[in-house]
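Quick board copy: two proteins, each given as sequence then tokens.
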Amino acid sequence: GWHNFIKRSFILDASNNILDINGTLAIVVSMKEESTAVFVPQNPLLNTIQEMFNDDKTADVCFEVANGADEVEKDEQIAGGSTSFHAHTLILKKCAPMLADLVSNGGEKGGMISVQVSDVQPDIFRHLLWYVYGGKTAEDTLKAHAKDIIDAAD
């Protein structure tokens, strides 16, 4: 250790109250534990991709899904009784190759590619496309529409 850390005369001096009545020196040792939790920030990629879902400003693909008997939001309806869903070719190629195949045959380079879909209800297509963008579907919705969603995915 250190020499001259504390002088013996200081320890023996009763006015300093270092020794108890029996002349015993009590030493208390404590250790400070360092936090083992490491802060790792959450990767924002998933949120960024989900923000791109159905974003007509950045999309290069527009799926026009024929409306059936189901109600859809008015701002999504377009002329001809169909609902528009905007998507991105890159995301489709990496996450939904079957949808990407529908896109690869149409459209001009650099422009919006329009794809007609007639064999799927718009709300089912929305769930399918949301899943492609990393979203999750509520369990009760899955129970109610599992067969339709699986059929649409095929």
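And the next:
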Amino acid sequence: CSTAALSFSTGGFQRFYNEFDKYREKFVIRPQAITNHPELIRRLGVISMNTPVEIDMYGHANSTHALGSKLLNGIGGSGDFFRNGFLSIVHTPSTRPSKSDPTGISCVVPFASHVDHTEHDILIYVTE
């Protein structure tokens, strides 16, 4: 697996660290300029999958901003993968529970509060 970074939960990191010798042969960490390079993504025929914060009825996806201005994810390569991959898929539950409301807030909205990916970048939308 080639990646620009690895991110784990506390338990996941502990498992990775405990079995580091097993995993060290499985991962190659490369600069982001290589892992997110559009030509490599196209040539490899990557199937790109991402879980956005919300999707709207126009086919736009918000992958980075919650509640309008709170940045959830850093600047990454999801756009590179969506635009250049063989298939681009967003998958999200229709609602997500919040701390104050177990029913949750809708992830499918009439108009996304922030647009990271347009309908031209995404081929498949998945929810329940």
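Board note added afterward: The first helix runs from residue 10 to 18.
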